[in-house]
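seq as requested:
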Amino acid sequence: MNRFKFRLQTPYDLASWREKQAKQELREKQMVYDREEECLNEKLAGMRSLIDEERSLQGKNVSIDNMVMLKELQNLSKAVVQLQTEVVKQALTELEESRHELKEVSREKKSMEKLRERRYARYLYECQWREQSAIDEAAVTGFWRKHNGST
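struct tokens:
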């Protein structure tokens, strides 16, 4: 009896490989996104601490130069936060693209798996049918031998 051979095994293997690659890419993009978001949170915390420091200095005898420098630091911190926000948005966009790619590749692999399972089920059915045919033929031959031999 011939062994089961899936004609589309190479495309199936390719789909499996692509799914594995897409999962790895998604993990990497997720790590980048998490790292950039953490960096943004740190920068936001720094900006908040500058604002808190300004509030604590209000009403106190502080030189104008120190207040101007604090305001400049706040403006610089605000610009850095805006830039980091853009970096986080870009990382999120790339992450969503990777998720979409993984979804498409997984769908392709799943359809190949279903096709493979159907073809294997058909192969098993054909094997059982051949076996049953051989058994039936042997039974009929045995019957005719017995019937012709006893007459």
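The CA atoms of residues 144 and 150 lie 10 Å apart.
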